[in-house]
Q: What sequence folds into this?
């Protein structure tokens, strides 16, 4: 089953120029990428992407897509929630993109893995998502203004918190630049 035609997030579609103008040194990390719809979108626009996930089948799908289309990217099989490891330690990226994934202990590591002047693009469900269905576990749902608080001190380029449609869901998103 090909996932390559899955639509990239509106957040990335609307802000592609930010990623194209990054003056890449370290590439972009698509953290907990799943089948890579967002990272593949960036790859198709000449952005070097490292796809990271704990789903080996999804990464194999991405890998074959990269080979078939000669896109710039690599896959990294990693479990960001494994106790006792810090997979982002010592790594540096021009940007990190995270969609529909929340593991709060990673916030500090994510911030440290973005080079000064680099970007975070983060979008996931909020506590109000319970009204629309899954996920409903509060561990996987952002509190009100949580992303804004996590990235306080960063230059917030875009933010949204509320109800989104197609599909209907409660989300928060942010694009922010790490101070130089």
A:
């Amino acid at each position: 089953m090909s996932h390559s035609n899955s639509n990239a997030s509106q957040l990335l579609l609307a802000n592609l120029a930010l990623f194209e103008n990054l003056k890449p040194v370290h590439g972009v990390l698509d953290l907990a990428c799943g089948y890579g719809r967002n990272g593949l979108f960036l790859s198709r626009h000449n952005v070097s992407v490292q796809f990271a996930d704990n789903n080996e089948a999804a990464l194999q799908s991405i890998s074959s897509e990269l080979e078939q289309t000669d896109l710039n990217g690599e896959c990294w099989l990693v479990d960001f929630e494994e106790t006792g490891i810090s997979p982002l330690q010592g790594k540096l990226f021009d940007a990190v993109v995270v969609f529909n994934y929340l593991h709060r202990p990673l916030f500090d590591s994510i911030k440290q893995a973005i080079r000064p002047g680099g970007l975070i693009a983060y979008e996931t469900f909020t506590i109000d998502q319970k009204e629309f269905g899954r996920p409903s576990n509060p561990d996987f749902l952002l509190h009100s203004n949580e992303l804004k608080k996590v990235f306080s001190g960063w230059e917030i380029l875009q933010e949204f918190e509320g109800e989104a449609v197609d599909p209907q869901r409660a989300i928060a998103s942010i694009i922010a630049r790490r101070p130089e």
